[in-house]
Amino acid sequence: MRLETTSDCARLDAKDLLEFYKVNPETGLDNSEIRLRTNLYGLNILESKPEESLFVKFFKGVFMNPMVLLLLGSSVISILVGNYDDAFSITLAILIVSTVGFVQEYRSEQTLKALSELVPHFCTVLRDSNQTTINVTNLVPGDIVSFMTGDRIPADIRLITSSHLEIDESNLTGESESRYKTSQDYTPSLNSANDSSFSEQQNIAFMGTLVRNGAGSGVVCFTGSKTEFGRIHSMLQEIEEPRTPLQNSMDTLGAQLSMVSFAVIAVIMLVGLIQGLGWMNMFTISVSLAVAAIPEGLSIVVTVTLAVGVFKMAKRKAICKKLPSVETLGSTSVICVDKTGTLTLNKMEVQYLYTITDGLISLSPDNISQASSSWSYNQLLKSGNLCNNAKIDDKNELIGQATDIAMLNAALRVRGVDERERYNRISEIPFNSEVKKMSTTYPSFVEQEYYQSISSSLNPGSLNQTVLYVKGALEHIIDSCTTHYSHLGRISTLDDSLRQEVLAQAENLSHRGLRVVATALGVDEHNLSFIGFEVMKDPPRPDVDITISRLIKAGVRIVMITGDSEDTALAIASSVGIPSASGSSSCMNGNQLEKISDAELAQVIGGISVFARSTPKHKVKIVRALQSIGEVVGMMGDGGKAKNKIPLLSF
Questions:
Q1: Which of 521, 537, 553 is the last residue of a domain?
Q2: Is position 386 within any domain?
Q3: Helix/strand/coil for 422
Q4: Which of 196, 561, 562, 633 has the smallest CB count inside 10 Å?
């Protein structure tokens, strides 16, 4: 049996996978086995091209630049013909150009390297029956790793235990919603376009992703370049670094000056020989004229100008790795923008509240007092608060799953209190991706009015002095509801007309890219009372629409690339002012990108401004298509998710 991808590991039963890696989940690997596997698999690092020495970098900067080579040739010829002053000035120009460029690029590289080493990465691993903390670079396939909220996943791991585990995979997929993970076996969908789809592998924790909630443990399947992130990183190594527009222009100028110089030498030599002058004398004169025609100061001016640009960028906290990148930035004709964390805050916020009694209300600052005075809105926020696992940490910051954080924050804004501090939770049924809901149980006195109302209609023998709070996808919640909690504890029938009214309202909001989370309560999960729903989204960053407007006025086209759904992508694009983002014809999804060739994409990409359900591989394809039609492409994304843009960095 061979395991080549995480999809292969996901399909295996956990017991079979542990047998494959010859590891006991109760004791972990022993030291001798760790040494053996380290020699076999190597360190858990991403392999890059061998770093060049400073000497090689410096001289590559000299001999890979046609303009500098032309100046170098002129200097040699000047020495040969005795023009030592010219030779000295040209050599000085070469040294200035090469040194300034080398020093600036070296400083930028060192800064980037220092940034990457700011935070050492460690993980908790079971070895020789002991839990220990090690550097992630020392992990090997077969290690038993455990993790909890706030941890980064150190390798591709097949889960063997999980508890309320939610992982943010936005750095791989671009999707803002965390994914629920389970140790259960994985069965691929028949409709899956790709059998290694990240979204379907619910029992795999991928390297570099972030644990938002819960805890888990698992066996390491792949490390280093064999991980999914490592495969993405490998794309970077296969991409040749292109010449920038300025470098191409300088190359062209150097070639033209060379041809003109040789032509001048030939013409003057020919005229002199026709007139009977000595060929050595004429050669000296023609070479001197040709050297004089070469603008040795041009390279100095260009290099110093670019260096000044780099310094100015650095003052604005932007690092330019290569000097010509400054000019390329000014030549950019298309900017591909990531949605989550770039156009948006990467932070879910409740935008609206809806109850059957009071309808839909915007949760803007102006409406906080109105919401706080409404019994039904208070009940909705209370239920979202009690059926919630978000926490407030020592720094007074909310941590947990994005939806829970949004609902807790809304409750605190309107009600000013965390209800969980007042009541003790009896039990919890965690979120299940199949039924798409979670529930918590509290003593019946938490909802005294409701409990008294419902008790009269139920068999006393079925009551157990507890009340159940449920939240989740509206269609799953409302199917379990027979009544709705209307006002001051009154229970009213949820008839078909009311049910359709609620669903229609939610569908309208969903088409606007908003997420609907419903809540209900009851004493029986199959006989609930509907409360309402909270409507949330990842809001645009302040003034991002102004920035996009300025870029468009400057002649720069904006293309949004995201892992989110088409509805969400189009809604965000429209709200921030990306042109032509008003219909599905301007949007292409990942499945369509898989089926279309590079040439076909290049033909239609001019009319597409939004790409949804995109992976890192798709982003490379999009950028290549734009470049093939002559565009100078830039990529913009937040640093926390740079991993899903790594293949683009060489463009």
A1: 537
A2: yes
A3: coil
A4: 196
Surface-to-core class of residue 126, CB atoms within 10 Å of its CB (0-12 exposed, 13-18 middle, 19+ buried): buried
Q: Which of 537, 554, 573 is the last residue of a domain?
A: 537
Pairing state between β 359-362 and 156-168:
unpaired
Cβ neighbours, 10 Å, residue 388: 24
Q: What is the pLDDT of residue 644?
A: 46
Looking at 416-538, list the stretches that DSSP marks H as alpha helix, in order from N- to C-terminal side. 448-455, 474-479, 496-510
Looking at 86, 151, 338, 564, which residue is catalytic? 338
**Whole-prediction pTM:** 0.68
The pLDDT of residue 468 is 92
Contact at 8 Å (CB) between 143 and 29? yes
Q: For the beta carbon of residue 452, count every other beta carbon within 10 angstroms.
A: 11
Q: Does some domain include residue 648?
A: no
Angle at alpha carbon of residue 364, lines to 361 and 370, rounded to 5° = 55
Range of the domain at 385: 349-537
Specify whether 361 is located in the same domain as 264: no
* 254 plus 393 within the same structural domain: no
C-alpha 339/C-alpha 101 separation (Å) is: 34
Q: Tell me the CATH number at 184.
A: 2.70.150.10
Is residue 63 situated within a structural domain? no
Give dist(CA 450, CA 438) in Å, integer: 20
pLDDT value of position 241: 62
How high is the pLDDT of residue 454? Answer: 66
Please identify every stretch of the chain with a pLDDT value under 50, giving residue numbers as ranges. 118-119, 190-195, 459-462, 639-651
CA distance 382 to 412: 10
Structure tokens belonging to residue 503: 């669903």
- Neighbouring-strand partners of residue 163: 215
Question: From start to end of 110-249, where are the E strands?
Answer: 122-127, 130-135, 144-148, 156-168, 179-180, 204-205, 210-222
State residue 559 phi and psi, 5-degree precision: -125, 125
CB atoms within 10 A of CB 33: 18
Strands 587-589 and 349-355: unpaired
| Cα-based distances in Å from 532 to 355, 453, 535 | 4, 19, 10
DSSP assignment letter at 222 = E
Residue keyed to tokens 């007092």? 369
- Which residue from 561, 560, 641, 647 is spatially nearest to 172, judged by alpha carbons? 641
What are 89-108's pLDDT values in tens digits? Answer: 778 877 777 776 677 667 66
Residue 299: which residues within 8 A CB-CB, separation 6 or more?
67, 68, 71, 93, 94, 97, 250
Mark whether 338 is an active-site residue.
Answer: yes
Backbone φ and ψ for 210, nearest 5 degrees, come out as: -115, 130
Q: SS3 of 20, please?
A: helix
Q: Tokens 């696992």 map to which residue?
A: 389
Neighbour tally for 649: CB within 10 Å? 12
Are 364 and 508 part of one and the same domain?
A: yes
CA 211, CA 476: separation in Å to the nearest integer? 26
Count of domains in the chain? Answer: 4
Tell me what pLDDT residue 200 has. Answer: 75
Same domain for 530 and 544, yes or no, is no
Q: Please tell me the distance from the alpha carbon of residue 239 to that of residue 526, in angstroms, as a whole number.
A: 56
Beta-bridge partners for 170? none
Query: Count of CB atoms within 10 A of residue 50's CB?
Result: 6
